[in-house]
Amino acid sequence: MGDPCPLQSQALSDCFGDPFCEEIGCKGSDLSCSCAAACGSDTVVTECFQTVPTGAECDCYVNDEYLGSCPQQFVDCGIELTCCNELFF
């Protein structure tokens, strides 16, 4: 089945680039983790770590440039699952 909205998808891509990413890989533990993905010609990286007493914080990078940090409830580094998503897209 093809894209049900090809004109809208093309318009989104024309305005913002291709928002679809292919995950390169993740590593880490329950206390910290990092993931990288290829998004068009850019590489995005999340590095998340547990904060005290509860919660997590993530550092967000595009092409090795630091974009910022953001809080989230759990240590989860999947590119599409982190709070970095708002900074990336």
In short:
The protein has 2 helices and 5 strands; from the N terminus they run αβββββα. The chain is α+β, with helices and mostly antiparallel strands and 89 residues long.
Fold topology:
Elements: H1 6-16, E1 21-28, E2 32-39, E3 42-50, E4 56-62, E5 65-72, H2 85-88
Antiparallel strand pairs: 1-2, 2-3, 3-4, 4-5
Description:
This protein has 89 residues and is α+β, with helices and mostly antiparallel strands. It has one domain. Helix content is 17%, strand content 45%. It is built from two helices and five strands. It has a five-stranded antiparallel β-sheet, with no helix packed on it. A hairpin with a 3-residue loop joins strand 1 and strand 2 (32-39). The longest helix has 11 residues, at 6-16.
Key attributes of the depicted protein:
89 residues, alpha+beta, 2 helices, globular
**Mean of residue pLDDT?**
82
Low-pLDDT regions: none
Main pleated-sheet profile = 5 strands, antiparallel
Q: Note the overall shape.
A: globular
User: Helix count?
Assistant: 2
Helix content class: 10-25%
